[in-house]
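So, could you explain this one?
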Amino acid sequence: MTFPPRWLQRILDRIDALQKRFKVSAFVIAIAKRHGDDRGGQYASLITFYGLLSVFPLLLLFITAASRILGPNSTATKNLIHSALGQFPVIGTHLETNIHALATGSTFALVASALFLLWGALGITSALQGASNEAWRVPRHREPNLWIRTGRGLLLLGVIGVSVVFTTVSASVAASGWLVHFSKLASPGLIVLGILLNLGAYLVALKILAPSARPWREVLLGAVLGGLTWSLLQHVGGYLLSHQLHRTSEIYGFFAIVLGLIFWLNIGARIFLYATETNVVFATHDWPRGLYEPSEAAKASLAAEQAARQATEN
């Protein structure tokens, strides 16, 4: 008996033919196939690893700087810290219990945190550049050298940093409550501002990572989809993480917070990688694709085997 059975194979073939007929379904399937071809899961794991290394040093530096500039017990400092930790739904409330230990870091701790932050952050940008180069099919011999990659990495970190700072400050202003005295539209306005900041950050970041010959219009679709998805996730992420932590907290205890953080970072990495693949598929018109179509690596391996077989026969 063959597997799958013929009747099931006929149904799957019809589904495959149907998805190719509609542009939306064909486009989505092509993005998913391209993500698998480009080892998106491996790059997402690598970005998550370096992101985990960067989060805690970044919190230490941010909290210490805010405490020393604005005062450790000031309302502005508390609002900023609460807003910054609010970037991590559910997890932020657990991290806030250790806020005093982070805020009283020594000079050595600050220097060590800065070095770890730089290492982890440049690891993130290096992984993002590698994923983007593979997605856009940049040949290895044409990839930027170390200095250009480092410069792009620092520029990308600047974009991410500015976005996080503006988002944190706007959330802090909203938490302070004084805008409520001026307009009832203040809260919705800040939500729209946060969405626009995410869209702008995605657009600039994707343009930095794309080959220089690619125009802005070829990175616009991925920026819109990625920015909107990330904005939506920021509002519903509390439910996702609370559900994730509920299943693990009883078994892992405090380590469930770390697992939740890994889960959150991995989702963010995958959103960005899918945004990149969206731009690539749109720019190269690489759709429709079959559900059972082999990956490019499999095609190359098959072609090499056929060439070797023909050479042997000749």
